[in-house]
């Protein structure tokens, strides 16, 4: 105890001696301004003065402001679509969620556009559409065009809750122009991605296995759940419907495809009016047959345009022997060497138009004029 007290007194004495021999220096000017003799501002005012140059600056650049306004204007037209299907589990057989995707409001009547593959396989009575305001409505299928991967739904929502999308055109699209995709990737609603048009006139395969020509290729991120959502231009107008991605992993790899809005427009108009697309047809069944160049005419519908023009199909004699009829080489001079060629060529025409069929009959070339019929009639 005595040693402790002695040590404490020695330390205290040393401290007092140090204060006496080495007094604190006189107050020096601060680093703020050595020549300044006025009051030193407090920390808050110093912080304000530091950022005084940024307080009057706009929070967003002009480009950011345009993108924000585009999203806020267009997003109320975009909706989230969920579907259910009947599935058998270990315990029972019932409805389970089968998929989800995006869509958009077409008009004040409540028509909603999406991809056919979004609703394919779902119970037609178990499709739900959730609007941007969070309200969910049951939807019924008005019709679809499997060959274009498009479907039209209808919901009974008040007109005040429906904001139709602004429909543009795909005729003036150019590679390099900015595009914007709004959708619900992975179920995350109201997501915006941006990019550019990477290429035009791409050919992709539809759910029906037939080609869709003229597809728009974009590098805007499109992931599962974006399907059926709108692709917009810088004016916020619809120029395409996002339908697929090219990716080994199933996630966005910078290559997405959209159906041009001009195709969407005629498909939707026909589906709303007729329940299906009113396509031009020949009134004959044609197939690719090995060993023949062109499409072999198998059968001809008695009341169709092909029959009226005298087109001949395969005939069978009393002994069951088959005889080749006509072989279609082209329409109006454009080759039709496959069923895909025929489908794409007939797409150019409307029911009622007259076309020239380039055929081979009895090993001789000939031309027949045919009035095209309608797939709806």
Structure, explained:
The structure is a single chain. The chain has helices spanning 2-21, 43-50, 52-55, 62-74, 116-119, 261-274, 305-309, 339-346, and strands at residues 78-88, 93-105, 111-114, 127-130, 136-145, 150-155, 178-183, 191-205, 211-218, 230-232, 238-245, 256-260, 280-281, 284-288, 295-300, 315-316, 322-323, 327-331, 334-335, 354-361, 364-371, 373-374. With 377 residues, it is an alpha+beta fold. A six-stranded antiparallel β-barrel has the order 1-2-3-6-5-4. A six-stranded antiparallel β-barrel has the order 7-8-9-12-11-10. Strands 14, 15, 18, 19, 20 and 21 form a six-stranded antiparallel beta sheet that branches. The radius of gyration is 36 Å and the shape is elongated. The model is unreliable at 28-36 (pLDDT under 50).
Strand content: 35-45%
Rg (C-alpha, Å): 36 Å
Order of helices and strands: HHHHEEEHEEEEEEEEEHEEEHEEEEHEEE
| Average residue pLDDT | 81
| Termini gap | 116 Å
- SS-derived structural category: alpha+beta
Number of helices: 8
Number of strands: 22
Q: Name the strands of the widest sheet in spatial order.
A: 1-2-3-6-5-4
Coarse morphology = elongated
> Which stretches are low in confidence, meaning pLDDT under 50 for 5 or more residues running?
28-36
Helix content: 10-25%
Q: Could you give a short account of the major beta sheet?
A: 6 strands, antiparallel, barrel
């Amino acid at each position: 105890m005595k040693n402790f007290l002695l040590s404490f007194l020695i330390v205290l004495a040393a401290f007092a001696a140090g204060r006496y021999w080495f007094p604190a220096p006189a107050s020096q000017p601060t680093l703020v301004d050595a020549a300044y003799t006025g009051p030193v501002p407090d920390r808050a005012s110093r912080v304000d003065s530091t950022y005084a140059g940024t307080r009057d600056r706009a929070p967003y650049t002009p480009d950011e402001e345009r993108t924000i306004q585009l999203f806020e204007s267009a997003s109320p037209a975009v909706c989230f679509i969920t579907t259910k299907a009947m599935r058998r589990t270990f315990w029972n057989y019932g409805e389970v969620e089968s998929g989800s995707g995006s869509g958009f409001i077409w008009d004040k009547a409540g028509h909603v556009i999406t991809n056919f593959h979004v609703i394919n396989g779902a119970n037609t009575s178990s499709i739900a559409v959730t609007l941007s305001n969070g309200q969910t409505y049951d939807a019924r299928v008005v019709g679809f065009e499997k060959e274009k991967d498009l479907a039209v739904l209808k919901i009974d929502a008040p007109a005040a809750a429906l904001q139709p999308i602004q429909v543009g055109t795909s005729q003036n699209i150019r590679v390099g122009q900015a595009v914007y995709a709004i959708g619900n990737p992975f179920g995350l609603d109201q997501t915006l991605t941006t990019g550019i048009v990477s290429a035009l006139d791409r050919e992709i395969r539809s759910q029906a296995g037939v080609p869709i020509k003229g597809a728009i290729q974009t590098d805007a991120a499109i992931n599962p759940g974006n399907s059926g959502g709108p692709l917009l231009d810088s004016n916020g107008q619809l120029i395409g419907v996002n339908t697929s991605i090219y990716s080994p992993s199933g996630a966005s790899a910078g290559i997405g495809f959209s159906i041009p809005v001009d195709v969407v427009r005629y498909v939707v108009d026909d589906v709303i009016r007729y329940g299906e697309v009113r396509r031009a047809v020949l009134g004959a069944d044609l197939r690719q047959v090995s060993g023949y160049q062109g499409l072999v005419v198998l059968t001809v519908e008695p009341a169709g345009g092909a029959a009226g023009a005298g087109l001949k199909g395969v005939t069978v004699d009393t002994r069951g022997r088959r005889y080749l009829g006509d072989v279609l080489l082209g329409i109006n001079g454009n080759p039709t060497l496959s069923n895909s060629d025929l489908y794409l060529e007939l797409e150019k025409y409307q029911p009622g138009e007259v076309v020239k069929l380039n055929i081979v009959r009895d090993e001789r070339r000939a031309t027949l004029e045919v009035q095209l019929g309608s797939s709806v009639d």
